Amino acid sequence: MSNIKPMAHNKIFLSIALTSLLTLSACSDNDTGSMPTPEPEPAPNPTQDYRVTVTNLTANQPMSPMALITHQTRFTPWVTGEAANLTLETLAESGDSAGFANLDGVDALVTGEAALAPGMKQSFDLTLTDSESSSFSLLTMLVNTNDAFAGVNSFSLAGLEVNMIKKFSSIAYDAGTEANSEAKGTIPGPADGGEGFNPIRDDVDRVYAHSGVISSDDGLSSSVLSASHRFDNPVLAISIERLR
Fold it and tell me: Which N-terminal residues, if any, form the signal peptide (predicted)?
C-alpha cells in the first residue's frame, strides 16, 4: 500500500443485461410457407445514473480503495455500539472489502482501483436499473491505523431526484477489534507495512467513534506513527449526485 496513486475518475456500471427472447409460433398444415412471427422484445428497464465523489480530508492517512455497495434496505454495514461482523473487521484491519459481495442483502460491490491519498479526490459513476438496489453504502480503511474506518452507512437512493446532490461528512470509526497499539508490525499502511487482518480480537469488540492517533511524537514511545498521522474529524467528504 506504499505506492499510492490518486485515481481521477472511474467509470463503473452496475446493470442487468436483458436477453432477447424469440418465440417461434407453430405452423399449421395450411400455412407451411409462412415465416414465424417473433414476439416483441421486452422494453429495457429504465436506468438511473449517479456520481459518487469522495475527498480525503486528512493530512497523512491514505484511504484503502473505496468499497461502494448497493444493497437492500434491510442491510447495514455497521451499527455503532454493536460488534463488527467478520467482513467489517477484515476491512477495518486490512482494507480488504471483498467479503461484502457475499453478504445477504448486498446486490453489488464495486471497489476503487487505488488508494485515496491525503487531500485527493475520486469520482465514481454508477448506473442502476429500477429493479436493482434501493440503498447505498461506502466504506474505506484509514490505513495508517490499527482498525479505523470511515464511510456512508445505508443511504436510501429512493428520494434522490435528478440533479439533486446529497453531501455527507464522515468521522473515523473504530471497529473495536484490534487494540490501538500503533506498534511496529500491526499497521498495514505505508507508515509501517505491518500485518493486516488478524482474527484475534483484543479490544472492546464494538464499533465506536475513533479516539484518534497518539503517535510517538505525543508520548507513545512504542508507536510507529508520527504527529503527521493524527487526524481530526471529519476525515471524508462524500457527495452523491443523481445525473439521470
Answer: 1-28
Contact 212, 135 (CB under 8 A): no
What H or E segment, with its residue span, contains residue 91?
helix 86-94
Q: For the chain, what is the largest distance between any 2 Cα atoms, rounded to a whole number of angstroms?
A: 96
Instruction: Give the pTM.
Output: 0.82
Using CB atoms within 10 Å of the CB of residue 131, give its burial: 0 to 12 exposed, 13 to 18 middle, 19+ buried. exposed
Instruction: Select from 42, 44, 43, 39 the least CA-distant residue to 16.
Output: 44
What does the pLDDT read at residue 175?
98
The listed CATH number (3.30.1050.10, 3.90.650.10, 2.60.40.2130, 1.20.120.790) that belongs to domain 10-15+43-242: 2.60.40.2130
Q: What is the mean pLDDT of residues 111-140?
A: 91
CA distance 84 to 176: 8
Residue 132 is predicted with a pLDDT of 61
- CA-CA distances (angstroms) from residue 78 to 149, 150, 207, 231? 11, 11, 8, 22
φ, ψ (nearest 5 deg) of residue 119? 80, -5
